[in-house]
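[SOLVED] Need 3D model of a two-part complex

Original post:
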Amino acid sequence: MLELKDIERCYTNGSSKTYVLRYVTANIQEGEFVSIMGPSGSGKSTLLHILGMLDAPTAGAYNFLGEPVHTFNERKRAELYQQYIGFVFQAYHLIDDLTVYENLEAPLMYKKVPAQERKSRIADMLDRFNIVAKKDLFPEQLSGGQQQLVGIARALIGRPKLILADEPTGNLQSQQAHEIMDIFQKLNREDGVTIIQVTHSEENARYGNRILNLKDGQLQA
Amino acid sequence: MLQNFLRLSMRHLWRNRLFTLLNVTGLAIGISASWIMYQYAAYEYGFDAGNPLCDRIHRVATSYEMDGQEFGNSGAPTAMLQTAQTVSGVEMAVPVSDQFVFTVRTGNNDQKFEKVDKVVHTTNDYFKLFPYRWLAGEPTSALSNPGQIVLTQSRAERYFPGVKMADVMGRRLIHNDTAELVVSGVVADLDFPSSMVGKEFLVKKPILKPDWTGVNSGNQFYILLAEGADREAVAAQINRVSYDNIKEDLEKMKYSRTHVLHSLREMHFEPKFTGHFPTTNKKVLYVLMGIAGFLLLLACINYVNLATAQIPQRAREIGIRKTLGSSRKTLLTQFLGETALVTILAVALSAGLTSLFFKQYGNLVPEDILAYVHWQPTAVFLVVLVAVVTLLAGSYPGWLITRAEPVRILRGQADTLTPRGGRVNLRKGLIVFQFAIAQVFIVGAIIVWQQLHFMLNNDLGFRRDAVVFVEVPWVLKEKPEYADKHFVLLENIKKLPGVQQAALGDPLLYLSYMANTFYSNPEGKEKVQHNMLIKYTDEELLPLYEVPLLAGRYLEPGDTAKEYVVNETAVKTFGFANPQSALGQILSTEDGGAFPIVGVVADFHMASFSEKIEPLALVNGRDQLSTLNIKMASSLPADWQPVLEGLEKLWRQFYPSETFKYTFFDETLETIYEDEKRMAGIVNLATGVALLISCLGLFGLAMFMAHRRTKEIGVRKVLGAGVFQVALMLVRDFLILVGIAIALASPLAYILMQKWLTNYAYHVPLNVWVLVGAGAVAVVTATLTVGFQSLRAALANPVQSLRSE
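Solution:
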């Protein structure tokens, strides 16, 4: 599904180059649950951003579903976000101005899902995550765990094939963290959704079936 | 979808109420300026536009050139009618003459109306040219016999209130107690602004002795050009006939005269050719449009500044939306939609502001401007305005938004979103631009005010304090039994307690005057010929005004001309070496009069300060004296009331049928400078508005800056910076921009105002201190605007700002 070959990401600062990622080669198959681990500053998030096409490698090749990513234009990328990819962030990143319901609705609007179907999909999602009672609240009125539930629900509502999660439980207490990870595992096992998560925690990584270890921008064997 | 968009946008605007308020207010002010200007321009350009023949109907006016100066007269010689009718290319020629009626009495109940204007003498053809709607009567025959009168509906309602239009037909009116008239038709008032101001129409008497010499703006001629006729060819034919008839006169008097054709729509924009109808100077109109345009631009700049400053706060949302699959187009549309919403809110607010303007500042615009408002074009204008403002204000911030890179934002580097590129960026440029415009406005306001103050208060060359004018009713003066009454009145006035002096004669500052050509033919020298103004006075007028005598003496008592007192300019014009040597010189006129100069007075201003002082002769003329000039003994206005009461009492004894009216000299001055006062009012208002808009924007920006630098301020305070130092740091950044604006705008303002001042033959000097003063106003305003925010930011407790991160 995803092929990375000799990915390199560096920042030029004056005459010196700082490599955030270097010589990264990896293949991720459909249906995998991959955890990217490593110490702070090892390039985990950058790798995830590159995988999510939010950032571009300075060298190397990245194929998404067999197509080279660097040929994608803005519109193609927007289309992929609508059809294939769901993001989950450590800081939840819900839209403050929108209610829970509207946050869930936003990706469907971009996907041009008809109103009737939007309604039923959102209802399903609210049900599934047990947040029906919160649907008219704004993010600031929810606890961190609840916000992250909404964040995941929003990522899932477009029925993506791939979920990219950047420390999804980083801001949560362990009880909530377990719940979230259980959801991910269930999604991976029952619905065949490919999941790539960045995490610090060995425990979280154990939910997945493969671990990529990064150190100083390079993958460790 | 639309509903969804509206709900979300409104919510966003409500959450950022303060900025919404700043944006809506700023835009509303700018939009109001444009709206008012639109109304104004629609009115001015709407003159006679409702007449289907407006491009074929032309007024034959007269243009003179003499001594290199041009004069315009909206009238033409009486012989024009016949000639115009015979010229090829002219389909119809119609005479239109003005009359001022002193009394109108209605036939039956004997109601009396005084001083009625807009009475016009013309022919039946008039109604073929001008599209009046007939409510009663027959257009083809309503003006066929002398004694017929056609009224407009407004006049019919005034004279015969409550009477049906059909029943007004046949009613009697008596003009000036002599002419009996019968109403032969009633027409609706024109429903568009028009140069044809006539409200009552009488039959024009046939001209018995058509004449080619005299031209009077009260006698106008309108022609209808045949379709496709060449108007230059028509004008050439008319001018040929006219020239042939006055050739000798032209050569002898050394001036040239041509007739010019102005179409009905053009004549409104020919202020040189005045008469009893409104005209407009196109240049002034353009200046006003420019002012309105700049105010709108300032408002848009405000929006751009505030919106771009807000982007870092919105960046997170934009980034998220992008990861959810939103395209650039969607984001841009959303932002422009939001801008359009703000603009529409602003239009709603400016509907209120505009009507407030017309209520509060109605005197700055023509009074009947709101009488002809058409809602359809106004609505179209507003829709276009919303579109233009939306694009002007929303495009740049919208473009910035679509450029947002989600990865930076999600990492918390939102600030990098604002335009990069070092110290110079667009937002700073826009602030500089705004304050540059504001600076030009402030300089303009100061200079206009200075000039107005100068004109109202500067020495006119004579003492004018505590002088009151009273006009002798000249309709009565013509009657034998009243011929000498005003002289007796004058003697009585002189005896009134509280009156220091009284004289009869043309007030020194008086716009209508007589002129004639004078010769000087000293022995052994060449004959000199010049045009000179004439004022008729009695012997006491010059002493009353304390006009300084340079040589000789004032006029002696006399009934008719027998000697001249001239001004210094006349001395120079006729080439006399000095005032002393002018004494005794003989000046003669074409009609045979030849009298010596007995005195020379210092130059004084006879007209507004925009006019150069012309050569002038003061001369006796008992028959011409019709204004009483009364000088109060006391200079305290409080003492004048009993004198005025005494005057009125005397007046009632002498002219019981006439109302007593008086004017103070200062009031006359004010009427002369009405245009300038209007301009000063507009410029002041525009300056205030420009400053206000700029400050609204600055206020918002300062708030953002203070917010963005909260952490920096906290750190600085922890490091030991004082409140004042921190506040100064924030204020300084803005003041540098304002300083650059002042430096850039001052030369421009200087050049512009210098150009404006050349309109006035006598004007205030353009002092560099004005520029400095205007700059100080801008700096102080900006400091006050920014200072509050800065001080608040500087006073914040650093513990809080540092913890929040």
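Edit: Residues 650 and 739 of chain B are 64 Å apart (CA to CA).
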